[in-house]
User: Fold this.
Amino acid sequence: MTPFAALVLLVAAERLAELAVARRNTAWSRRHGGIEYGRGHYPVMVLLHTGLLVGCLAEPAWADRPFLPALGWPMLVLAVAAQGLRWWCISTLGPRWNTRVIVVPGLPLVTGGPYRLLSHPNYLAVVVEGAALPLVHSAWLTATGFTLLNLPLLAVRLRCENAALGTAVSPLPATAGVTP
Assistant:
């Protein structure tokens, strides 16, 4: 197994960990009256993100893409930074974080952590990772394809999430934490 394949498999394992967290958080949200929005785009999102990982493994092998240190190392740093940002989002939102759009009515918006800087920092992590991870091993077709397919999906997701968050009561002060 190449180091890049090991990296992609680690990212896949991280995704499985995210799904476990999301499953637990979905149960918490439902117990607290959570309402899911945008179910229709979720399978497309799962397919696209799975395709990203498959493309990361397939393109370097099929197209004989080399590891280019001047590109690969900076992209690795960006891919790792994207993971760090994603887990900062997960830890900041606590039981409210999910891979689905679920809002518990009456809970205020979270404005701490990365949310004090950006409205949707997790999507920044997705965009950076979608470009950077494949480029660690010069898989530019995968990086380009994911990015171009992700743009309209992200637009749908942001509209859905913004509408869902509009049902929340009011922002929490940045020092208030994330617990309801």
In short: The chain has one domain: 3-27+36-165.
